[in-house]
């Protein structure tokens, strides 16, 4: 799951506060809940919650699918990349389009 990778990357960068957005209301609700996660993805979601405790502040927010255009463009672009690719300061051309 991308959110787990993103959190690990944020820790590697030394970030203390992160805001994560996703278009799955079920996943975001589960991540914001203190209840046991009795779903097929439960262990992964519990792992994400455990990693979240390593940050001073973590926000999980739901956004509508149509508002997640950048994530979908990155996912389409990912099909062409074999190694890790990171943009730190400049927005890639395919996102600006």
Verbal overview:
The protein is α+β, with helices and mostly antiparallel strands and 97 residues long. The protein has a single domain (2-96), classed as Nucleotidyltransferase, domain 5 (2-Layer Sandwich), CATH 3.30.420.10. It contains five helices and two strands. It has helices at 2-12, 25-31, 42-52, 69-78, 93-96, and strands at 17-22, 57-62. It has a two-stranded parallel sheet. Helix 1 packs parallel to helix 3 (42-52). It is globular and about 40 Å long. The mean pLDDT is 85.
With strands numbered from the N-terminus, the spatial order across the biggest sheet is 1-2
CATH architecture: 2-Layer Sandwich
Give the number of DSSP strands: 2
Shape: globular
What is the CATH class? Answer: Alpha Beta
Structural class: alpha+beta
Task: Estimate what percentage of residues fall within beta strands.
Answer: 5-15%
State the helicity in percent bands.
Answer: 40-55%
Instruction: Please tell me the overall pLDDT.
Output: 85
List keywords for this structure.
two-stranded parallel sheet; single chain; 5 helices
């Amino acid at each position: 799951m991308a959110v787990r990778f993103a959190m690990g990357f944020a820790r590697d960068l030394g970030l203390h506060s992160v805001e994560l957005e996703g278009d799955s209301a079920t996943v975001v609700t589960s991540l914001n809940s203190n209840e046991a996660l009795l779903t097929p993805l439960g262990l992964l979601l519990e792992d994400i919650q455990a990693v979240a405790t390593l940050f001073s502040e973590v926000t999980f927010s739901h956004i509508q699918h149509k508002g997640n255009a950048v994530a979908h463009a990155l996912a389409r672009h990912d099909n062409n990349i074999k190694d890790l690719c990171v943009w730190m300061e400049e927005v890639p051309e395919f996102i600006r389009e």
